[in-house]
Amino acid sequence: MHKNVTMKDIAKIAGVSTATVSLALAGDPRVNVKTRRQVEEIARRLKYVPNEIGRSLRARKAETIALIFPNTPHNAFSHPYFVQLLEGITEVVVRHSFHLLVSTSPTESDEAASYDKILRNRRADGIILWPSSIRDDNIGRIVESGFPVVYLGKWHRGDVLTVERDDFGGAYMATEHLIRRGRRRIAHITGPLDFQVSIERLEGYKKALSDHGMPYDPDLVIEADFTMESGHDAVVRMQKAGLKYDAVFAGNDRMAIGAMKALQSFGRRIPDDVAVVGCDNIEMATMTNPALTTIHQPMREIGAIAAEKLIRTLTGRPVEPRQTVVPAELVVRESCGGTDR
């Protein structure tokens, strides 16, 4: 076979997991001698050439997990629920006597080179990877490297360890709640549509409309960028366009809060004239007037599950299920008018 043989190919022939192949090729004593020799022989026969990222990281055994945030215009460090995610990961990491390294890529024109540099210079045995733009091919390079990775989102291959929020289900729940409150012209303010979270929430919104026999109007979908200012601007655009709507579902709470400020500046009463629902259940959602109905995302639980999966992999224990979807929860407050009819 040619030189682009992957650890997945070796794992398939050997009848073991990709993580076991990674550990075996690194000479890790947690893999028994028979399995290690079998993997090494298959690798030699296939003329396997180790991936540079995986090889450089495997060379270091530091009992450390890296939490990597790829560089984006809206870095996860600015999200209020980042602390909850970090708390969940830290709790598990400390319990297993591991260390945690948090890293984000710098802003460089050659992003691929910057990723390689970051990975090579970190003493990490495995990676928890925060999702980025679907156009970021470098995320794929990390996930497909054969190095132990847990991806915090949906991945197209079923053998990759993932933990994801139910963004589709949360958006469906929010939209359905508005429909049951009697709203018939529901606008949706999305995040950037090259992010999987925004795509999933848009699809959940559309499916709820369809299931309740309501037409989808693309004019009522406004793409924004997760910030409060962009939520405000989205409402200004709808008002100036003369669009008729009686509800707004925003793709996160900050956009929802910005939308509420704009609605109130136009003299529109919440929820009498326009009901508003956000997503993420940040602390500020309880401080708005009226308080914001939202979708709770259990980020602490997501972090804990991801860390547990990765440490089980690193210690040679089976991981089931390989894909985990953590359900969302509707938190009803005053901005939508109360409970369902």
Question: Any key phrases for this structure?
Answer:
341 residues, alpha/beta, six-stranded parallel sheet, four-stranded parallel sheet
Polypeptide structure, described:
This protein is an alpha/beta fold. The protein folds into three domains: about 1-50, 434 Repressor (Amino-terminal Domain), CATH 1.10.260; about 55-165 and about 300-325, Response regulator (Rossmann fold); about 165-295 and about 330-335, Response regulator (Rossmann fold). The chain has twelve helices and twelve strands. The chain has helices spanning about 5-15, 20-25, 35-45, 50-60, 80-95, 110-120, 135-145, 165-180, 195-210, 230-240, 255-265, 300-315; strands at about 65-70, 100-105, 125-130, 150, 160-165, 185-190, 220-225, 245-250, 275, 295, 325, 330. The strands form three sheets. Strands 2-1-3-4-5-11 form a six-stranded parallel beta sheet, sandwiched between helices. The protein has a four-stranded parallel beta sheet with strand order 7-6-8-9, with helices on both faces. Helix 11 (about 255-265) links the parallel strand 8 (about 245-250) and strand 9 (about 275). The protein is elongated, with a radius of gyration of 23 Å.
